[in-house]
Amino acid sequence: MSVAVIDSGGHLVMECVLETKASTILEFIEGLRGRLYVTFEEGTWAAWLYDLLKPHVTKLLVCDPRKNALLKSGNKSDRIDARKLAALLRAGLLSPVYHGEAGVRTLKELARSYLTLTRDATRVMSRIKALYRSWAIPCAGQRVYSASYRKQWLEKLSEPGVRRRAEWLYLQLDQLLPLRRQARQALLAESRKHSANRCLQSIPSLGSIRAAILMAVIQTPHRFRTKRQLWAYSGLALETHSSGDYRLVAGQLRPSKKPATTGGLNTNHNHDLKYVFMSAAISSSVCPGPFREFYAGLLAKGARPSMARVTLARKIATVTLIPWKKGEQFEADKLKLQAA
């Protein structure tokens, strides 16, 4: 790894290349004097490097690489990037990525395994249906995946190469589904060890799997000071972009009456968390309960169904955050009917 060291005045003091080895990195850190402020980008080694360096430095910040626009401009190399990161850290222009809750690490890894296997199984199932559709064979429903109907489906493929390809996809699916069930059982067993599990499962439409994923991804609710920070992290915050906010009238600058604006949900977010809240909102909109009444109230006020579901997802995120912080269970009579 490339390392750049600058002093409080912004002058380059040292730069070097270190072997990615714990003893080598600690030996280098211990050789530096003064108060040390360290940063590096979130990546494959971020969790390991954070745990290694945290006890030995004054402040450690793992930054979000998607927000480091300065690193993309001009010449690029590890040496140049290290200098730019040091300058951005000194100026306070880096966006941190949360690290620090070691108590849920097992749950976090199990949730990653479950989500990865779920995506892999979904990808194989999509390929199976795409194979049949490419030969104009209708394949709606779930029977195309069933082992009891597999022989009938394979007989519809007359071309030998296509049929062999379908057989291999079925073999891949047969391996993934049992692994996914094992990962699900392990995830649920680990989630029951955490005190927040009962609190989250008391919220309608969350259920055991969504509650486990929330605990694994969020780790602690106290990392979000307000509900709006959780909305932004979950991809539920509204972003607006405007152009031509001012115009020149009689030599004076005045605000435009109707500036051109575009809006939408923020794109830089945690996709797993957005899936949890949006899927919970979709389930709540059709299942009896307090959230369905909230959703119906939005539709009665003239909201579009898509926007009503987003608003409901924000409400579920808010309802999740507040009781979790207090360690209380959900109470339907305390649900406020105004929009989130």
Report what the structure shows:
This protein has 340 residues and is of the alpha+beta class. It folds into 3 domains: 2-91, no CATH class; 102-191; 196-334, no CATH class. Helix content is 51%, strand content 12%. The protein contains 12 helices and 8 strands. It has helices at 22-30, 46-53, 78-91, 105-134, 150-155, 160-191, 196-201, 207-218, 227-233, 271-286, 290-300, 305-326, and strands spanning 2-6, 12-17, 37-41, 59-63, 238-243, 246-249, 252-255, 260-265. A two-stranded antiparallel sheet has the order 1-2. A two-stranded parallel sheet has the order 3-4. Strand 1 and strand 2 (12-17) form a beta hairpin. Helix 4 crosses helix 8. The longest helix is centred in the middle third of the chain and has 32 residues, at 160-191. The model has no long low-confidence stretch (mean pLDDT 91).
Q: Give the tally of β-strands.
A: 8
Report the span from N to C terminus.
Answer: 45 Å
Sequence stretches where pLDDT stays below 50 over 5 or more residues: none
Radius of gyration: 26 Å
| SSE arrangement, N to C | EEHEHEHHHHHHHEEEEHHH
How many domains make up the 3D coordinates? 3
Can you give the mean pLDDT?
Answer: 91
Q: How many helical elements?
A: 12
SS content category: alpha+beta
Q: How large is the share of residues in beta strands?
A: 5-15%
What overall form do the CA principal axes indicate?
globular
What order do the strands of the largest sheet run in, or round the barrel if closed?
1-2
Question: Major sheet: size, sense and barrel closure?
Answer: 2 strands, antiparallel
**Helical percent range?**
40-55%
